[in-house]
Amino acid sequence: MAILKVAQMGHPVLRRVADPIDPDIINTPGFQQFCDDLLETMDDYDGAGLAAPQVHHSIRVAVLTLEDDRGPEFFVNPVVTPLTDETERYYEGCLSVEGLRAAVDRPCRVRLEALDRFGVPKGYELEGFPAIVVQHEMDHLDGILFVDRCDTSTLAFLPEYKRYGPLDELGDEPSLDLSDLEDEDLETEFVPLPQDVD
Ligand code: ZN
Asked: Superfamily for 12-192?
């Protein structure tokens, strides 16, 4: 097991379209070790998800926690298909874009198909927060960062976000897994916003 270094925005690995994974390598010790390392790295950074390109491996696998009771899950060669034009707005952050937050509108219902870390096919229909997180992570496999999709007028540095940002307005709204924040109030990578904000 090893904690891997997380690439920061500006590193070209974050902008490549990652390579599909050959199903024949899935059940090899090397790939399984990589999955363990990806998970350990996500846990160490308190992230909600982590995609292989974020740790300098340009291959199509990501780990993420969709629901706490299911725990972290691996998605190999995932395909995400929006099931609605309706969008939901969340404030997003990213382990590879340290210190920035911004609001992103994404389709709020998607279908996700992928192999698990042992090569078994699986599929889900996801709504709300899990649908949003999946799209954020899968974007990493296509070289896309949340700042590419965000409402740029909402971009904020962390101290300013903390001081003036929507958390103040949202009061006790639940916050979900953030990466690089020390402050307990802000331990979230995605902050739900009411639809009518902005
Ligand atoms: Zn990210």
From this structure: Peptide deformylase (3.90.45.10)
